Every structure is written in structure tokens, then in C-alpha cells.
Amino acid sequence: MRDSGRTPGPAGTTRPSERRMEIAFTAFRELHEHRWGAYAYVHTGDAEAAAHITEAAFDRLCAQWPYALRQPSADSYAWSLLKEHVAGWLARHRRGTALPTAALHCAAHAPEPERGRRFRILESRTALYAAIARLPERQCDALVLNLVIGYTVAQVADLLGVERAAARSLIGHAKRKVVAAVSAVSALEVPSEAGHSGGGK
């Protein structure tokens, strides 16, 4: 664990309360670090940037950990720090979220036996992620955390600082909107292709 923002005391002088906080922070980081990196990556599309963003967010959280533990939800407070770092990176680089292109990365980095199958479903996945990116922010976060990154509904609720029923509702509404959007895209593509093959305008 990196202790940025905190000056450790002399050896053997750490109080039990401080030690408990260090253990809690280490456990929190071990639980969330990989998934935070995945969230940063799908929005930046840059593995190196995602690693730096995640590290910076955890460094800041470490410095503010006692304060975070006094909040109604430490998970939600920590999540807000990560989102702030991701949003800051996107703003500095004048980019929108890279979520619509996440499917391309997944297909390109699949093992050789899987690559052909992955590219066959790439088009539908790209439409799926593009639809997710167009959702309202809270619904987008809820669906990305649950569907793309793999957090449970209970974990999504903790991170967003809402009740489980509210998280389940956000995910449900988001899924319905995405399904409707992807279905609409598919419906539009069929007559377009038919008209082109038939020599239409």
C-alpha cells in the first residue's frame, strides 16, 4: 500500500486505531483496484492512463481515508474520487468516453481460437456499448459497474450510495433503454441494406 499524503510515525508507535484503518484501506483497495482500473480503461481507452488514474485515486483516498470512513458511505465517497479523476483526465485530453470502442479492444485481445467469434459479435457489441454511453450518467454508471465490470447489485448500491432497490431499478431501466436502442438500430439497418442491394437511392 502506498501511503501518499500521510507521514508514518516512528516504528512501533502506530496506534491500534491507525492500524485498523490501514488494514481496512488495504482490504478496500484489494477488493476494488482491478475493477476501478477496468472502469478507468473503458472510459479512457488507454491502459497506461487507466493505471495512473487508478493509482492517483487510491493515493488521494489513502490520504483522506479517516475522513472517508466518517461519511455515510465510504464506498460511495471513494467512488466519487475515482469518477473525479476519470472526468478530469477526459477533460484535460478533450475526449469523450471511450466506452463505445471497448468492444473492439475485447475482440482484438481475445485468444486466437476465440478471436474469430469475438469479431463476429463485434458489431452488435459496439452498438451495445454506444447505447450504454448515451444513457443518463447514473444509469450508465450502474450498468457499466454491473454488466461490464461485474459488480453485484449490492456492490453497485454501495458505490453509488443508494439503496439496493434503487440500484436494481437503475440497472433495470438502463437495460430496457439499451435493448430498445440496439433493437432500433438493428431494425433500421435491415431496410437500408435491402434498399441498397435493390438499386435504390
Write structural notes for this entry.
Keywords: DNA-binding, Sigma factor, Transcription, Transcription regulation. InterPro entries: RNA_pol_sigma-70-like (IPR039425), RNA_pol_sigma70_r4_t2 (IPR013249), RNA_pol_sigma_r3/r4-like (IPR013324), WH-like_DNA-bd_sf (IPR036388). Pfam families: Sigma70_r4_2. The chain is 76% helix and 0% strand. It is mainly α and 201 residues long. α7 crosses α10 (164-197).
Summarize the structure.
InterPro entries: RNA_pol_sigma-70-like, RNA_pol_sigma70_r4_t2, RNA_pol_sigma_r3/r4-like, WH-like_DNA-bd_sf. Keywords: DNA-binding, Sigma factor, Transcription, Transcription regulation. The chain is an all-alpha fold.
Topology:
Elements lengths: L15 H29 L2 H17 L1 H5 L4 H19 L9 H7 L3 H9 L1 H12 L3 H13 L3 H8 L3 H34 L4
Low-confidence stretches: 1-13, 189-201
Structural class: mainly alpha
Strand percentage lies at under 5%
Largest sheet: none
Distance between the terminal alpha carbons, to the nearest Å?
A: 63 Å
- Mean pLDDT across every amino acid position: 80
What's the helix count? 10
Note the overall shape: globular
Order of helices and strands: HHHHHHHHHH
Helix content: over 70%
- Strand runs, count: 0
Whole-angstrom Rg? 21 Å
